[in-house]
# Entry
Amino acid sequence: MKYINFTFPLIFLFAISSCSTTEHEKLVELDKIPDYFNTIQADNSTTFSYPSEMLITENLKYESKFQFSDLINVQYVALQEDNKEEGMDLKAFSIDKLEELQQKMIEPSSNKLTAFELKKINGYETVFEADTYGWSSKLVYWISVVELKCKFITAIAWTTIDRKEKFQKDAAFLVKSFRIKD
# Structure
């Protein structure tokens, strides 16, 4: 009986400590680009990384500089580039961009943006589910807007709701995979 009383607290403490991820651990995870990601030059000073199973394509319905798809796993990414207008700040642009993107959706479920900073790049991100025209099932979107010197870049990643769990880690990373070249 003493053995059981001693073992249970140890198992409980181990389970709690192994499930938590500190902010430092999250930043370290975002700092290292996974081995199975490819990297492209998004502009003269910035790179962007995406899963290697995705192919560069031109047939997505988003007007964008770069488009990627993995048709087998139903995963998609689009990068949109917009010039900075005089007086437009990152937060105001991010709100406007999210509203513009959600006009293509039947019922978007969120408009909450969260600020982030990573390697000298500021941005806003959001994750939400939505019924979207042309899709028979609900989609999950991961969206980030980052501010560069002369422009804003929007990364949009999406998949069907039944594939969310499989794509979640990669999507969360890739919308924050912008890096300033040294």
Summary: The first helix runs from residue 2 to 19. The chain has a mean pLDDT of 82. The radius of gyration is 19 Å. The CA atoms of residues 140 and 164 lie 7 Å apart.
